[in-house]
Amino acid sequence: MIPPLYTASAPVFRHYLGQAMQMIEKAGPEAMAARVADSYPAGQQFATAAGFAMRVACPLAGREVPDLPQALAPRLAVVRATLGALRPDDFRGAETRRYVHKAGMAELDQSAEDFLHLYGLPNFFFHLTMGYAALRAAGVDLGKADFDGFHAYPPAFHADD
């Protein structure tokens, strides 16, 4: 049986970071400065999402979090490659360990399930969504299919068509 902590982490992070790479490519480098209100710019949101993927998947797999490139495209490429190299067997026993870490200034001590489902995944998707929202707010033509890679819709209806 494949460990559920593997199936709920590494492949999920890898898939959605692939979607982020496509959104970034579609938007262009100048759009990475776009923001929603006073939040981080889109590029930093995507970089932070990639960081959360590593901060969660690596400890669950019993590995150290690697140093990551600062530049966005190489960072996403390294994170996706690292996630792709993780194997289900790396996650065996993860559910028996405690995960002590910081969330801002808060010191947390969590079970594997809480670490992934209540901390890691929500933070990953928060930053991914904020990056997407910043690009949308800047006028980049993105839709739900760009975000998740699954949806398909007909071309947008325009009243003057």
Can you tell me about this structure?
With 161 residues, the protein is mostly helical. The chain has a single domain (4-148), classed as dinb family like domain (Four Helix Bundle (Hemerythrin (Met), subunit A)). It is 53% helix and 7% strand. The chain has six helices and two strands. The protein has helices spanning 4-7, 10-27, 42-60, 72-85, 112-137, 144-148, and strands at residues 98-103, 106-111. The protein has a two-stranded antiparallel sheet with strand order 1-2. The radius of gyration is 17 Å and the shape is globular. The model is unreliable at 157-161 (pLDDT under 50).
Please sum up the structure shown:
The protein is mainly α and 161 residues long. 53% of the residues lie in helices and 7% in strands. A hairpin with a 2-residue loop joins strand 1 and strand 2 (106-111).
